[in-house]
Amino acid sequence: MPKGLNRAALTAVGLVAFAGAASADELVMYCSVQQSWCEATAAAFTADTGVDVAMQRKDTGAALAQIRAEASNPQADVWWGGSGDAHIQAASEDLTEAYESPNIDQLQDWAIEQYETADHKTVGIYSGVLGWGYNTEFFDRMGLKPPLAWSDLENPDYEGEIQVANPNTSGTAYTALATLVQLYGEDEAFEFLKRIDDNISEYTQSGTAGIRAAALGETGIGIAFLHDVIQQAAAGFPVKAVAPSDGTGYEIGSMSIIANAPDPELAKQFYDWALTAKAQSRALEAGAYQIQANKAVAPPPEAPKLEDTKLIDYDFAKYGSAETRSHLLKRWDDEIGSQR
Amino acid sequence: MLRPSFLWLVTILVASLLPWYADGPGGFVSGGLLGLALSGLAAVWPVALAAIAVLAFVVLDTRASALATLLVSLAAAGWILASGGLSGLPYDAELPLSLANQPAIGWGATLAFFAFLGLMGDALARRGVMDGDPFGTHLLVFASAVLAVFVLFPLAQVFQEVLRPDAAGSVAGGLADHLLGKDVWGLSCLTGGRRCGMVWNSIGLGVAVGLATTLLGLAAALFITRIRTPFSTPARLITLLPLVTPPFVVGLALILLFGRSGSVTLFLWDAFEIRPSRWIYGPQGVWLAQTLGLTPLAFMVIHATLVSVSPSIEEAASTLRASRWRTFRTVTLPLIRPGLANAFLLTFIESLADLGNPLILGGGFKVLASGIYFKIVGAQADLGEAAGLGVILLVISLGVFLLQTLWLRNASFVTITGKGDGGQPARLALPLKAAVVGVTLLWGAFILTVYGTIILGSFATLWGRDYTLTLANYVDAFNVIAGDHGLVWAGGAWNSFGTTLMLSTLAAPLTAALGLLMAYLIARRRFRGRRTFEFAAMMSFAMPGTVIGLAYVLAFNTPPIEITGTAFILVIAFISRNMPIGVRVGLAQFSQLDPSLDEASTTLGAGPGMTLRRVLFPLLKPAVATAIIYAFVASVTTLSQVIFLVSPRYDWATTYIIGLVENTNYGRAIAYSVVLIVLLILVVAFLQLILSRVEFRRVDDKTSRETA
């Protein structure tokens, strides 16, 4: 056999050996909260249990799309974080698996309600209120009045100053869309979105991009969950959080085990661990100001008090259903997204 | 001499004991071809029968039996792939193994597949193809198989997706849905509307970038080769910097400079009360970033052509009293026309394929590459429309590519022959010289500003607000902490960094080898179907990364070849996307090597393998170096190709960084980019050192002429 072929054969053997060595025992996780918290959680789990974690951050909608695409050949074990309605949709499509953790009774009622709604296929791990943050330096210098209610966002002074995410990829933006629909009714909500369209510079992919841009001054206003705004403010940025005075929605960030996961045992180990007070109390250290689901973990002092905020009665079952979600997203695409 | 066929038959025997399926029944031996065949699995019988038949044919060793070997091996190789999964259905572990329900192929089937290909190669040689040279025929068969399985098959899946009928069951309706969206072809921007369709955006951007980079690249190449200045080496290094940078990092630097909170913007606001705007987010920003990022590519191509123009021809022109300008216009320029055309072609196609800059700078400006991405990532994931955009993108790339090839075909550009020649390259006319110097210096200054920003940005606490120097961004990305069970690689960058480094190192030499060997086949061997082979090899060159990514997701997520989420799919995607650069560089080099060199070698009794190794390979060294370096750099810096193929286990540096950018975490993104750039500079310098030591170039001084 010619020499060149021998060399090619050797290379092929090398490839095989490499691929063999690369597969080891590790938890594979999709993570849909902010990068820093994702990483801190993965590292904390490894530090506590010795199990390596291969983690990839994906925006909530993108994670759902990925898990759906991989359904015949799942690549990940667990999906941690991200707005609950996407988790409920995954549950309704049987993309995730029911699991009864011994640690369930340590959780707040709203977390268990999420768990019951989805037939034990997902569980609430944190919650957060929807709102926005604005860049105080920019507003002062331009002499602008801060928006305090949803209707204020129509102000023509804000032209090109608002960033919000694309609800197809972002759980934050879907929560905003569903909130407006529940506040105004569907048709009026879309009219409102069309009216503020001129004020919106960009529909970002990630739900936290807008508020980070507002913090840096790249945009004036970022629509986001308040815990993300508070995180930026705590880091020293000139942003101020606003809970809309005409009422707003909230999310129940959730966790699910992926159906037919490559390593279901590790997934369950992580699930149990992630519900403990020890794991959840680490959130604040990682700069995550979400309200944790474990009853033993006190809410961060900076977090908005739920009782001070005018919350709508968010219908998670309806707005997490595949039917409603697909309908709203399709309409958003047709009337807003594709007009860009 | 023992024919290679026997070795391939032994290989099949070994393969028949290895696990046949990736996720199937049994282990070694029992799960092998033999074990499964004996346990009554009909699906594998044809393979076993084919092996026995081929053994008989090989022993007979006649021309007719060689034909039989060829056909039976082809059928067997096809059966191995087709028996299971061409239906596109996933394997159902609950159902019994059958013809219609098979898992993905495993090591046994893969090895046997290769062995049957080898048998075909040997049979072709036996039939007298390429004068009976088994080296050439093996090469041809393996290369064709790579093209068929990893380029044509995935591409076919994209077309199949486009042809999928719509909800009403109509193929025409499906086609219209997938190809004719108004966000694709809309022309409303001409009539005062907000946006034009993605097709027009992509083409306009590509042409603008192609023209700008070709001009800048030509200026830089002339500056370095034709003007005597002490800045030649620094200029060359600066020109090459963007080459070792992921393209979107340049875009990121532009945001730090010209974004709303960019340093230039804030300076203008404070000093002149110019209200910050978002002008950088749009076509202008994308164009600027792509031009900066892609000029080195144009420069490399033009420079390579320029140095290989034999000075004796230019000298002849000036001896005939042509002015410097006339010499340049009528001799040099026509000779480097292929270089200019290639530079334009390469940068146009790279611009079409670039995903990073449209993602971070595009704002509402969508091009085809980013359109495909948005059709796939969202909750409304629509593979059909993504595939439609992919097909359009492919057709444009391919069209440009064909146009260029036809235009270049008419001329012969052989200027280096075996015969000795020498002389000095011609000087440039004064106005041209002034223009070249001016453009190059201006551009160099801009590049330095961009890179200064990148380096400074990686050490700044918070760009635009707090310029205190810090290492926090690096620590943040590459942190290591102590846990209860040993060290934890807590920095988020480690996983993607390790994968990127390891897989690129693996892919680069394979890519270069395959590309150059294909170039060798095309340029130097005569066989039927050579044109088709060349077209197929070059076609993947015109396939944008996003399309390859999409095609791979469609093709390799189900049996028979189920490799999504593995390291393989990344390595293979790099090889099939970057291999054509090896072909291209190789062909360019071969077209300048007079075939009389090969003939001399053959006359002296060397076989084709030895001629390749001893005569052509040393002359090809620059091409080898270019191909390996390009392949390595391209795979480290690509985004479009990997974005659909990465998994939590095998994340990629660029996808990780773009995630950070998307979350406006600029500090860490840029720190990670600096680490990548430094790493690439070191690797490229190292490769240059070991590969180019025997560089083939014009020699001016006497001693080196003697050693050469």
From TrEMBL, chain A:
A Pfam family the protein falls into: SBP_bac_8
Molecular functions per Gene Ontology: thiamine binding; thiamine pyrophosphate binding
GO biological process: thiamine transport
InterPro entries in the record: Ferric-bd (IPR026045), SBP (IPR006059)
GO cellular component, one term: outer membrane-bounded periplasmic space
Gene3D superfamilies reported for this sequence: Periplasmic binding protein-like II (3.40.190.10)
Protein name: ABC transporter substrate-binding protein
